[in-house]
Specification:
The protein is of the alpha/beta class and 234 residues long. It has helices at residues 3-12, 19-36, 47-59, 84-90, 103-115, 128-134, 150-157, 175-179, 182-187, 226-231; strands at residues 72-76, 95-100, 121-125, 139-145, 161-171, 190-199, 206-214. Strands 3-2-1-4-5-7-6 form a seven-stranded mixed beta sheet, with helices on both faces. Bound molecules: S-adenosylmethionine.
Length: 234
């Protein structure tokens, strides 16, 4: 996906991008490529592929919610910043929190924030299940891409979502995961409001975005310890 196609595809999902934002994404790409030679950030390094599979893919969250109207967003297991960093660049109105368990990725993310002069964005080096215990009911939206199976990741993220807020994971093909997460929906008091399936432009791989609404405060029992979650997933 070249830059013109990227801008055109963003428009179709109601994301307009200024020259400044495009310059920020290009700088982000350069730093991603540079740091990727020293630390493992991504297997995707070609410019056209990063535009499609990291930058555009992150922006698709705007298909299920108008991100210009959202205040706080937390991205769990953000890795090299997908989708959270991209959303911060495209939607400067967002107050973004990025969380990852790997210190070297946290260092990279802080470098991006400083080089792109971004405000209202912070990065935490933490495991999600620990971070969630001290940041309950705090965010309008919590998101995660490619971190864990749905029933596992919901236990980390739902406690952090404000009442009537949303957990919006970005996934590949997941009908089987949804079916095996019924207990998680019930025990964590949340409802699946929307399942949006679509294909990425050009390469046509399948994507699914779930919109999961938190309908009641989460029991203080959750999240349990990592060992417990792993041994007995909801
Ligand atoms: N979200 C990014 C993306 O889509 O490109 C990164 C995906 S990568 C496959 C998974 C990331 O989640 C890694 O950076 C890993 O360190 C982080 N991670 C996995 N389990 C985690 C946990 N329990 N708490 C915090 N981060 C976690």
């Amino acid at each position: 996906m070249d830059q013109n196609k990227f801008i055109e595809e963003l428009k179709k999902i109601n994301v307009t991008i200024t020259q400044k934002q495009m310059d920020q994404l290009n700088k982000y790409y350069e730093l991603l490529k540079e740091w990727n030679e020293k630390i493992n950030l991504t297997a995707i390094t070609e410019y056209d592929q990063v535009l499609l599979k990291h930058f555009y893919d992150s922006a698709t969250m705007n298909k299920v919610t108008d991100l210009t109207k959202v205040n706080t967003l937390c991205d769990i297991g953000t890795g090299a910043g997908f989708p959270g960093m991209v959303l911060k660049i495209l939607f400067p109105n967002l107050k973004v929190t990025l969380v990852d368990a790997l210190q070297k990725r946290v260092k990279f993310l802080n470098e991006i924030i400083s080089r792109l002069e971004l405000n209202d964005i912070e990065v935490y080096h933490a495991r999600a299940e620990e971070y969630a215990k001290n940041h309950r009911e705090k965010y309008d939206i919590v998101t995660a891409r490619a971190v864990a199976r749905l029933n596992i990741i919901m236990e980390y993220t739902i406690p952090m979502v404000k009442l009537n807020g949303y957990f919006i994971p970005l996934k590949g093909n997941i009908s089987e995961e949804i079916n095996s997460s019924n207990d998680a929906f019930e025990k964590l008091s949340c409802q699946l409001e929307n399942v949006l399936e679509f294909q990425l432009p050009i390469e046509k791989s399948n994507r699914t975005i779930l919109k999961i609404k938190k309908t009641k405060p989460t029991s203080l029992k959750y999240p349990r310890s990592y060992a417990e979650i792993k041994k007995r997933p909801l």
